[in-house]
Write a structure and sequence with these properties.
Radius of gyration: 43 Å
Helix content: over 70%
Distance between the termini: 142 Å
Number of strands: 0
Number of helices: 1
Shape: rod-shaped
Largest sheet: none
């Protein structure tokens, strides 16, 4: 029993040192994992910001296209209506002249 206790007393410093080295390794591994996690989070934030920017640009382009096409349609409609009024006016004049 004496020898077992003596062996444990001699082995304790070696076990204690092994435990400290092991815990240092785990601390470094945990710190590396935290750094990697933070980098992944930053990349995710960047990707979301870029996707949001692209979505906003696309939405803006679609809105501008819609506004331009609406203006063109209004202008074309006005032109057609003006032509139609003129042709109606001309035909009414012609029929009034022929009636006299």
């Amino acid at each position: 029993m004496k020898y077992v206790i003596l062996g444990l007393l001699l082995a304790l410093p070696a076990l204690a040192e092994w435990s400290w080295e092991d815990s240092r390794y785990w601390r470094e591994a945990a710190a590396e994992a935290r750094r990697h996690h933070a980098e992944v989070i930053r990349e995710g934030v960047r990707a979301r910001a870029e996707a949001r920017r692209e979505w906003q640009q696309q939405t803006r382009r679609l809105h501008e296209d819609w506004a331009r096409e609406s203006r063109q349609m209004r202008d074309e409609w006005r032109e057609h209506m003006r032509e139609w009024r003129e042709s109606l006016r001309d035909s009414l004049r012609d029929s009034a002249r022929s009636w006299r």
